[in-house]
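Re: Re: ligand-bound prediction request (bumping)

Still looking for help on this. To restate: I need the protein modeled with 5'-deoxyadenosine bound, output as structure tokens. Inputs repeated here so nobody has to scroll up.
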Amino acid sequence: MQDNQEKAAASPVSSASGAPKKVFIKAYGCQMNVYDAARMADVMAPEGYGETAEMADADLVILNTCHIREKAAEKVYSELGRVRELKQARAAGGRPVEVVVAGCVAQAEGAEILRRAPAVDLVVGPQSYHRLPELVRRARAERLVDTDFPVEDKFDHLPRPSPERTRARGVSAFVTVQEGCDKFCSFCVVPYTRGAEVSRPVAKIIADARALADAGVREVTLIGQNVNAYHGLDEQGRPAALADLFEAVARIDGIARIRYSTSHPRDMDDALIAAHRDLPALAPYLHLPVQSGSDRILAAMNRKHGADDYRRIVERARAARPDIALSSDFIVGFPGETDADFEDTMRLARDVNFASAFFFKYSPRPGTPAASLTDQVPEEAKTERLAALQALLDEQRFAFNEATIGKTADVLFERPGRHPGQIVGKTPWLQTVQVDAPASLIGEIMPVLITGRGTNSLFGALPDRAVAAA
Ligand code: 5AD
Ligand code: SF4
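Reply:
Sorry for the wait, this slipped through. Here it is.
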């Protein structure tokens, strides 16, 4: 098998000033963009580029963009305005900056970005970033766009990061298991920007997860745009389901927790539900976007399921794992959504009782079927509905968090807290907990007594300290 271990750069590339070169990467949008950004850093490391968190320090700036809503896409252009100023200032100082736009805006807009943003040297799509070193070199001669869907698998060409780099990224890591989407929800750009659904083979995912575990990672989140449609081939060449993958990952020494995101209701099969009952390593958390509670709107969205189908899945999940935390994405103001449709969404949210949720105003995206519908909802109605839904879902989230106070939860400690002597971790239900405890516990899973809550996180204490303090 190909050895993907990162090669130490034989001679680090130097910038004009003589200092080693640095890359600054900013990821917008979903978890997969965060994952891809890390892999872009991995691919530039053997070229002698170290990472920097400061754009002003960088010789190479990569914006890994999101096209899901208009606001997300427009953010890129305002950032590119700032990048342009930096580029001009640095050119004057004799230390040039190269600028790359990657990700889904790159895929969707291609050469249009070069036209709109003169600072950009290279536009590269989500399936071509394994070629970054070569593309960056070529872009020095001529501004360049590469938004191909190449035949080769980018994962076969990405260097695996060293254990030190992996550990520095934390004890919880993403692994892409599936990419792209064939569902074509009528509002969504993903099938166009990320392409058709492709599942990675089981053996490659397990090799990635094992390397993470060997470097000290304790929790993996298996990610995909449609992760529960996973059907990668196993060693015998047979298609495996996501639940099979969970079992294989759970067998890896060191991996204590498994999460997955994002799922579609139509792919919630029995094996996946049963895994929530049978597999202790699988976190009791299900992010399952419903988008709307109205059957009429769900049909117009091309979701191919009804609101009651969703309620039944929730029932099955709760029967399998009574403490499972439910989470969803919602869109308000989809074309044609009436007050009655929106009321159906509120009713569904009340029926399910979510532990957390993400909610968005419908944003017409060029090239998607819903964008050309004539009955667009006025902005004021979208604003009102979003506020009402947010109030309900916030209330549900606070109640969920409130209910954990006084209980003991297993917390995976992930990083130092904001205050000295504090560390931050996650409960199985993906709640952030701040605890006064030594940094040496980062990477450990320990029982924590939940003592209170803030707006977005919980406070806890190691039980012996709680006892001592009582
Ligand atoms: N407008 C608003 N929200 C959208 N999403 C996807 N496309 C759009 C759009 N055009 C939301 C969906 C999806 C989440 C990732 O983003 O809720 O689940
Ligand atoms: Fe977009 Fe629908 Fe595919 Fe999710 S399932 S990525 S919302 S098209």
